[in-house]
Amino acid sequence: MLLDEGKCFKLVCGAGNEDAQEVEKLVALYSQAGCKFFDLSAKPEIVEAAKRGLQGREGYLCVSVGIKGDPHIRKAQINYEKCAGCHKCEEVCPQRTIKHCKVKQARCIGCGKCYSVCTHGAISFVSENKDLSEVLPPLIKEGIDCIELHAMDGDWVEKWDYINSVYDGMLSICTARGRLSEEKMIEQIKQMIKNRKPYSTIVQADGYPMSGGSDDYKTTLQAVATAEIVQNAKLPVYIMLSGGTNSKTAELAKMCGINYNGIAIGTYARKIVSKYIEREDFLRNEYVFNEALKIAKALVETL
To answer: What pLDDT digit, counting tens, does each position of 138-168 carry?
Structure first.
């Protein structure tokens, strides 16, 4: 119903975000702000944390998995012999996961901002390419509402076929133009949905993955442009904007005639409440929680 009405706001906690405490806080906050769809790391402890955060409120949980090379499943690591201790990586990290030139792996979402500012070649990445036959069955048993495959490029066929064989609920395809032409991106989507029922699949049109730190039209432009490509293909799928999304996304999409079904916001949604979420007493301090709630509600209502 949320998708059919175009009112589906999805909070992206981060496919690589394995900080259960942060996830619980984010879900508690945004579920009370009116969000009903949550994107999570595919780990039982993270799904359990999200359920605690819901506190009995209505909510749908989506777990994200990726293929080799997908930035969403990689983790930064620092070579201390090359590190000059300039702390630039700490300053740009949206997750505040780097301290004293060390990466807290559980919080790293693989965005690459640290890599882009390191002039000493000290930062590299390791991908967590896990066996879905080990990852998904426990999560399906726990009760999830959607599985998302990040399929920007590479060998997605085996994983997509496996997901379809073990789960008959809503599936989501996260795709982007970064490594694909427009034609190849649409052809990939067509291949992935050819054996699925109409409107049983969400296409998350990821304009520029994990780039939504700023709140302006330029930042969200690629998300809208990617969604337009999917819309023009007239496929029997739900369209969700992602990648660089912020409070301007819905407005720009409407101006451009994009008939979207939902908007997924991650980096920006987490950033605007981070100073509250970081507090140890966040879930106990009513004043602090309500201050963050005002900000979260304002974002959800932009949809």
So the answer is: 999 989 999 999 887 667 899 999 999 999 9
Q: Say whether 31 sits in a helix, a strand or coil.
A: helix
Look at 198-202, 213-217, 258-262, 269-273 and tell me which has the smallest mean pLDDT.
213-217
Contact by Cβ (8 Å): 49, 42:
no
From 7-16, 50-59, 100-109, the region with the lowest mean pLDDT: 100-109
Question: Domains of the chain: which residue ranges?
Answer: 8-69+130-300, 72-127
CATH placement of domain 8-69+130-300 = 3.20.20.70
CB atoms within 10 A of CB 214: 15
Q: Please tell me the number of Cα atoms within 13 Å of 36 on its side-chain side.
A: 12
Which candidate, 1, 56, 55, 45, places its Cα nearest to that of 22?
45
pLDDT for 159 equals 92
pLDDT at 110: 78
Pick the CATH number of 72-127 from 3.30.70.20, 3.30.70.1400, 3.90.70.10, 3.40.50.300: 3.30.70.20
pTM: 0.88
Phi, psi (5° rounding) for residue 163? -55, -45
Spatial distance between the Cα atoms of 235 and 226, rounded to a whole number of angstroms: 14
To which residue do tokens 């969604």 refer? 227
Helix (H) or strand (E) holding 52: helix 44-54
